[in-house]
Amino acid sequence: METAVTFTPSGYVESIGGVGGVVWQPEVYTIPTHRGTRIVVEDGVSTLNGYNVDCDVPAEIRNDHQAIAAFWAEQVKIWAATAAQDQAEMEAEARGELVVDGHTVKAPGFTSSEQFMGFVERAKTAQLRTSPGWNPGTVMVMNPKTDAQYAVTRTSCPCKGHHGHGRCYHRALVLWLHDVQGVKVCRIPTIGVDTAGVPMTVEPKPAAEAA
Q1: How many other CB atoms are there within 10 angstroms of residue 47's CB atom?
Q2: How far apart are CA 200 and CA 190, in angstroms?
Q3: Distance between CA atoms of residues 127 and 107, nearest Å
Q4: What is the rounded distance in angstroms from the CA atom of residue 184 to the CA atom of residue 176?
Q5: Partner of 8 for a Cys bridge, out of 28, 66, 71, 211, CB 3.0 to 4.6 A?
Q6: pLDDT score of 167
Q7: Rounded CA gap, 157 and 62, in Å?
Q8: Residue 12 near residue 22 (C-beta atoms within 8 A)
Q9: Cβ-contact 72, 39 below 8 angstroms
Q10: Range in 23-27, 48-52, 195-199 the model is least confident about
C-alpha cells in the first residue's frame, strides 16, 4: 500500500489574510494516516495533527528533511498494515475463527489466537504425535510419554480438559497442523516437531515399497 505524500516546495507565499506582503515558506511534506490524521514535516519539525512528535524520529536523521519525511511515510504504512491485521483478526474471531501467522483457523472454543497458540506450544513441548483416525475427519493424538491417545475432530476431543472447558492442546495441535502448517493430518502421521518447531511427518511409502 502506497502512502499519498504531498510535497509543497519552498518559496515566497502571501501571508495570512494578505497582511504583511509575502513570507518565506520552507518546503513541507504532508503524510496522511489511515485514521484521517496527518503528519506534517516542516523545516525539520514533525507534527501529528499539530502535536510535536520529533522525539519519535531517529536521532541520526533529525537534520535530514527528506529522510524524516521518508521515515514517517514508512511508519504510516506500518500503522495501516497493523490496523488492517487487527481488524481482520477481530472479524475472524467474531465468526468463531482465528488468524494465526496469516492463516485462518476454524477453532471453535478458543477465544483468541494467543490462547490457541499457548495450547499449541504445550502440545509441541509434549511432542504429541498424530495419526489418521479410522473415521473420516478424525485424527488420533498420542502422548508418547503416557501412551494416552484421543480421537480428535475439528470440534471435539474426549479428554478431560476439553470436556470441562471446550478446548485442549490435543485439538489445538491438530488444527494448527492442518490449518497453519498445511499437514494433511487425516492421511499423514506426525511425530512431534524438530528443534525449530517444525512438524515432523511420516510420509507414506510408495505402493511398491509397501508391498
Answers
A1: 14
A2: 6
A3: 21
A4: 11
A5: 28
A6: 94
A7: 57
A8: yes
A9: yes
A10: 23-27
Q: Which residues make Cβ contacts (< 8 Å) with residue 182, sequence separation at least 6?
A: none
3-state secondary structure 142-182: ECCCCCCEEEECCCCCCCHHHHHHCCCHHHHHHHHHHHHCC
C-alpha cell at 177: 497442523
Q: Are 12 and 25 in contact (CB under 8 A)?
A: yes
> Which residues on adjacent β-strands are paired with residue 51?
48
The closest of 66, 75, 21, 59 to 42, measured between CA atoms, is 66
Alpha carbon distance 172, 152 (integer Å): 10
**DSSP per-residue string spanning the chain:** -----EEE--EEEEPGGGTTSEEEE--EEEEE-TTS-EEEEETTEEEETTEE-GGGS-GGGTT-HHHHHHHHHHHHHHHHHHHHHHHHHHHHHHTTEEEETTEEEE-TT---HHHHHHHHHHHHHTT-EEEE-SSTT-EEEE-TTT--EEEE-SS---SHHHHHHS--HHHHHHHIIIIIS---TTTS-EEEE-TTSPEEE-PPPPHHHH-
- For residue 131, give the nearest of 69, 193, 51, 187 by alpha carbon: 187
Cell 517444525 appears where?
Answer: 198
Spatial distance between the Cα atoms of 78 and 74, rounded to a whole number of angstroms:
6
pLDDT tens sequence across 86-101? 777 677 666 668 888 8
